[in-house]
Amino acid sequence: MTIREVVQILDGKVLVGKDRLDEPVDTACGSDLMSDVLAFVKEKAVLITGLINPHVVRTSEMLDITCIVFSRGKMPSEEILDMAEEVGITVISSPLTTYTACGELYLHGLPGTKPKKKPEEV
Question: Which domain, by its residues, includes 82?
Answer without folding.
Answer: 3-111
